[in-house]
Amino acid sequence: xxxxxxxxxxxxxxxxxxxxxxxxxxxxxxxxxxxxxxxxxxxxxxxxxxxxxxxxxxxxxxxxxxxxxxxxxxxxxxxxxxxxxxxxxxxxxxxxxxxxxxxxxxxxxxxxxxxxxxxxxxxxxxxxxxxxxxxxxxxxxxxxxxxxxxxxxxxxxxxxxxxxxxxxxxxxxxxxxxxxxxxxxxxxxxxxxxxxxxxxxxxxxxxxxxxxxxxxxxxxxxxxxxxxxxxxxxxxxxxxxxxxxxxxxxxxxxxxxxxxxxxxxxxxxxxxxxxxxxxxxxxxxxxxxxxxxxxxxxxxxxxxxxxxxxxxxxxxxxxxxxxxxxxxxxxxxxxxxxxxxxxxxxxxxxxxxxxxxxxxxxxxxxxxxx
Length: 370
Ligand SMILES: *Cc1c(COP(=O)(O)O)cnc(C)c1O
Fold this sequence. Notes:
Elements: E1 5-9, H1 10-25, E2 30-34, H2 42-50, E3 55-58, H3 61-69, E4 76-78, H4 87-93, E5 96-99, H5 102-115, E6 119-124, H6 136-148, E7 152-158, H7 171-188, E8 194-196, H8 203-206, E9 217-220, H9 222-226, E10 228-229, E11 234-235, E12 244-257, E13 280-286, E14 298-299, E15 305-309, E16 314-317, E17 328-333, H10 335-343, E18 348-352, E19 360-362
Helix pairs in contact: 1-2, 4-5, 6-7
Bound molecules: pyridoxal-5'-phosphate.
C-alpha cells in the first residue's frame, strides 16, 4: 500500500466530535469545528457537522474555498485575520471572519458591497497570550466603528489563548471576556450573537466548575482530531487518541552498534548528542523524514524508539519487535506532526469510512493543488 500515509478513521473522529459537542451543550457552549490541521478536508468537515458542530472554522481561505467547491454545508468562519489582498475571496467563501484591524474590516466592507453580501465580523480581543487581538481598552471604540460600516455585521467577540505564550484560560480571563461582551453591547445598544472563548485549551475551564457566563462558543480542532488537551497534551477521557495515524515502510533492517564510529562533526541538521553505548541493536530505517512529518511529534508502538531523522529517513531502535524490510510501522502524530504530514505532498491521505466495511479510501487532495 502507498506509504507514507495518514489513515484517518472517520468513525472515531465522529465519536470525538459528538462527545465534545454533548459535554459542552450541558454548559450552554456550541462547538465550531476547526479544519485547518486537516487542510479543510470536506470529508472530515462533514463528519464534524454530522456530529453536531454549529459551524466550521479554518485559518486558510484556500481550505475554505475547497470546502465550498465540495459543497460542504453550514457556515464557515475564517479564524485568522484576513489579508487585505484576499478580501474579495474571503467575503465570497466565508460567512464570517475574525478581525483585529479596522483597515481589514474596511476592505471586507468594500468587497462585501461589491459582491452584494453582508459579511460577519467577530472582533478578537487580546487577553494576554500576545498573538492576535485588540487591546481590551480599545475594543469598544473599534466595535463602534465596525458597527457603522456598510455590508459588515458585528456578530460577536472572541479571544485566543494558549498559542503564542501558553497563557491558560482561567476563571479570570474568561470573566473578562464576558464583561467585555456586556460593555460592547451597552455601547452599541445591540446584542452580540457570538462570544467565542477559545480553542481546545479552553476545555478544562469550560467543563470545570466555572460559570461560562456569556461564552457560548469554542473552536475545537486538536481535541477532536487527536483526542488530547493541548494545555499538557494529556488524553481527554472518553475520546480516541488514535483516530489519525501515520504509517511508514521499512527500507533497511539491520543489527548495528548503538554508537557511530570515526571522527564526528555536524550531522545533516546540526549537532546531535552522542548516543549511549547500548551494544548492538536492531535498527530500522523508514522511508519517511522531516519532509513528511515532524519526527519529534511521532509516538510509535511500545518498545520502538525514534533515534533520529533526516529529510527522507526515520531511524528507529525497534527493540525486540519482529519486523522486516517491506513491513510498516504506525505512529500517532501530535499536532505539529499532523500538520506537516497533511501538508506534505509525499504523504498519501486515506480515510476509513464507517460504512463501506471500514476499508481505506484514498480521499484527500491538497486544496492548493486542486
Ligand atoms: C487553530 C485555532 C483554533 C483551534 O485550536 P485547537 O487547539 O486545534 O483546538 C481555534 N482558534 C483559532 C483562532 C485558531 O487559530
